[in-house]
Amino acid sequence: RERERDFFWGVSSSLKGIMSMGVRFQFRENALWALVAFLCVSVCFGQAVVAGHDHSGSYVEETVVVRVDGGKSIAEVDKDFICVSMDWWTPEKCDYGTCSWGNSSILNVDLTNPLLENAVKAFTPLKVRIGGSLEDRAEYNIGNPIEPCVPFKFNASAKLNFSVGCLPIWRWDELNHFFQRTGSEVIFGLNAFYGRTILKNQTLVGSWNSTNARDFIQYTVNHDYKIHAWEFGNELDSKDFGGFSPEQVAPGVIELTDIVKKIYAGRPDHPLIVAPDCRFKADWFKDLLQETGPGIINAITHHIYNLGTGDDTDLEEKILNATFLDQLATEFEAVRDTLQKYGPWTKSWVGEAGGAANSGRHLVTDAFISGFWFLDQLGMAARFDTKTYCRQSLIGGNYGLLNTTTFHPNPDYYSALLWNRLMGQRVLSTKAIRAASLRAYAHCSKHTGGATLVLINLNNITQYNISVSVSGAGPIGETRDEYHLSALDGDLHSQTVVLNGKVLGVASNFTIPDLIPVKVSSLQPISLKPHSIAFVVVEAMIPACLNVKE
User: Quick check: is 235 catalytic?
Assistant: First the structure.
């Protein structure tokens, strides 16, 4: 049945085109052919209209087994695996005629907004990466003060279409006060363009001038602002950003490491050094690791926008296509293998991932449908030993976890929060048997010896009735906790998420709603409705999950 649906999915685009032109099938005399055509259209239409749902309320059911290997873990992520980005973009940043950033930049976002503060506090703690395209063009108003300290301005003839921008030191103080109030762990991307000359053809020459970054780091330490990691540059390998070779990037990373060692000497809060925050290229990453050597880069960061750009006409189809989602495993495997062979002293981070590049797409990467690729990518990243995963963005663009103007959570916020609260560090091998549209991942649960599964149903006509088999596990608890996420009214473009039949919304006092599970008898299968997601907590004595301390 799964193979038949995959075939129908492949021809559904053609049928959509025919139907859109008003062509009507004319069935005469041959009842058999009429029945075949009806079934084809029904199944294909159900797969092709990815934002739709079964209006009749009927669906087919399939019994599926999900097998979890409880004997040993296959990977281990950081305790604070979930990370979010805060960017530098101004309201003038526009893509495809839409300007989606508003006042969401680190330079202008309202840090006194109670909903913003509560949304970050809910993670306790949350890694927050400050970075993005404009980080390399930033100047910090410290050392030799810049007067006036002018923010980024749109300039079509400038590098990245924006002028150099200044970060006022008072704003850096405000940001750190916010991070202290919310218990955030800060990752700061430094200005790798500083001191380099931009030629008329937009190429960069010269070496990094570290004086501005050094003064900035010293000020940060002097004021006892805690930094989890200092990051060198953003996508420096890209022609748009610099087109640097590993040999050009390595000296800056080594110099930054030396600066941090000296300034933080004798302090217990020594931050990590992370780089290069580029799209993954095996040879480029290998050469950077060999140029820098052991003890320099603590975490190798790579960016993922595997869905394409925000104007991609196949964006939604990709999100719900299991075969397409599977393709990313090749990249994760290559990253893991590259580090094992050429940089066993470092670890892998996803430094930035927003699904679709160029700010995403409204009502896709900020709607319920986004959860299918997002949670699948979290699960896959963890399975390949990625330690930290930074979502682009906390707020801003069309892929923010929070609405740019209201600060209310978008659906992916709740997915990230549930992951943060339920999924432990140890990753378990997990497989859904003979169900291509069912994605399944499992970790040891936080704070217990059991396991938590993430189950993702990409199919819009099939309810999966799932039995979970955990090898090596002791007796299963009498009940389990289930958190079922679905779109309001079945509309995958909705920005409202339903948890166990209840609409999630912010309270009048700007607090994040409680995420309350339903308790289900362990004797019953897990019923995962079409186009829905579930977190399921299984209580059991699982060998791989014993002695968990999180």
Answer: yes
